[in-house]
Here is the input.
Amino acid sequence: MQLVWALAWRNLWRNPRRTLLSAGAVAFMVFILIFVVSMQYGSYDTMVNHGASVVHGHVQIQRTDYVDEPRVRFVLEGAQALATRLRNDKSIKAATARAMSTALASNEETTHGAMVIGVDPANESKVSWLPRAVDEGRYLATTGNRTAPAAEAVIGRVLAKNLGLTVGDEIVLLGVTPEDGMAVLIANIVGLISSGQPALDRALVHVPLGLFQEAFEMQGAAHSVAVMYDDFNDASADSDVLNNAIADTLKETADTPGGPPNVALWNRLMPEIQGAIDSDKASSGVLYSVLVILVTFSIANTFVMMLFERTREFGTLLAMGAKPLTLRGTIQLETLLLAAIGGLVGALLGALTTYFVGQAGISLGAEAESVLAQFQMPERIHFGVLWKALPMAVLLMICTTQLAAWFATQRVHRMQIVEAIREEM
Amino acid sequence: MSIVRCEELSRYYYQGAENAIEVRALDQVDLQIEPGEFVSIAGPSGSGKSTLLNMLGALDQPTSGKIWIQDELLNGLNKTELADLRLRRLGFVFQSYNLIPVLSARENVEFVLQLQGVGAAPRKARADSMLERVGLGELTDRRPAEMSGGQQQRVAIARALASEPDLLLADEPSANLDSQTTADLMNLLTELNRSLGTTIVMVTHDTEVMHYAERQIKMRDGKIVN
Ligand SMILES: Nc1ncnc2c1ncn2[C@@H]1O[C@H](COP(=O)(O)OP(=O)(O)OP(=O)(O)O)[C@@H](O)[C@H]1O
Ligand SMILES: [Mg+2]
Here is the structure.
């Protein structure tokens, strides 16, 4: 056994330059795979998390009929209890309950449509970045232990401009209660939101959930619960944690006519992001395959040359009674060592580079930024090392080089011993 | 029972445009070699010496005729069976030594034993004692590049004999060596032939070398002429 390994190891260093080039090619490939795939998955994280934290969350729970037609009366009773329960689960990063309605916001001259959202300010900040998009005044005060909710609102900057209102002014909103009564909500504007998204800036109004519930006669109910996880990959529309919490806190069950709770995952809430990820995976998959094939072919080529140079040695061993498969086995072993060396070096360099570059962040350039803005992404992408890419990249290269060696050494079976022995070296 | 026997053995090559020229490298050769013999095959270049030796060594297939090694007919054995036969019963020594360059003298000898499935400890012991026998007891850890031609050829002999073959086939083993080294090598082969009883068939075109063997075969144009 020892002799076989010694032979393989020393054979590698018969032509150190060639071995280093081949090992370098493996290292390069592993390096690229680790770095690029980590960056790729990091960008998916950014896309999904950023997209999810505009409004929806990684998972959003609503009544089924509300999903079909968002009417104020399709409420989730116990939404706040559900949010509280989920927040306390350690697998969940944040959860918040919301109530929503369209409303008319008016001043003396004009009327504008608005989307009023009743939020729990402290938890809203953990789910969404909209509270941080306030660029004048402040966001809603956290409720604390006050019984009566503060009569304050934060509204989109464009809406404020259209209404001729600003921080310190009073806004009047008219809507319809679940019982088809008139809902009137009056609040002081304490801040303006500039989200960069026209649709939001033109219509958004955040008020404390309690205030919304009073004005819209919600009797403590809300319309949706948004949930965020630390890692979006952990999010699922069908987990025990969710199902148990829903069963324990909501009055609505699967049998509620029109109103069984509907749990939607981020990829259903934001199909455009799932689509972007899918097409990116597909196109990069093609690119990686081409790269891997190119590198593998270049290595296979060196095997063919190496075999050619060792023709007489192999002829001699075949003459002495060695089996072709035994000889090919020694080359597979050499190849394994080669790929392992290259793979380890590539994995080490790949992980280190990925770590430091991912910390510093990568700018995708001005051109990409406008596209990214669509998905509400920051212009610098930060990412971590995708650890599972390490063994996978190394294993992939070990497999492809093994295959390359296997095909390159087919010739051993066809070797004419008498001619091989005579071969000049 | 003879060690090796052939009957009307022929090997033709076809050369030239459209393989029009027939070269009779071996032409209807009958030969019988008995256990313990030391036989030399001599003759001018191109007379078919190597071709005959390769046939006896089961390295090449005849165009016609039959070969037996210890009463086993080689015609009709497949590649694997032939490889096994070479591994168990034959030893080879070549003109240019053909050692594995990255292995030491001992490891080169061990390698063949490993192919035969001999375990690590007996392998090493046998390699050492065989190298001792060919006078290289001090050089077991040297690589081929660190040895003279004569020393490398001794390693090759040790490698060929370590597995205790019945028949040792040597094609011009001394062609690359000076006369003193050649004499030493021939004395070694003679001594091994006597002490181990290994049958040796050696190709040479050197008349002096030829006479170390007790029986000399002369070839010309693919035929045995004496
Ligand atoms: N592979 C081959 N293809 C064609 N002809 C061959 C081949 N091998 C040998 N021959 C021919 O067969 C004849 C015998 O060759 P062989 O090698 O047996 O001669 P030899 O006696 O060993 O010569 P030398 O002393 O030069 O080694 C020669 O005419 C040679 O040209
Ligand atoms: Mg010859």
Remarks:
- Residues 271-309 of chain A form the longest helix (39 residues).
- Chain A has a mean pLDDT of 88.
- The two ends of chain A are 28 Å apart (CA to CA).
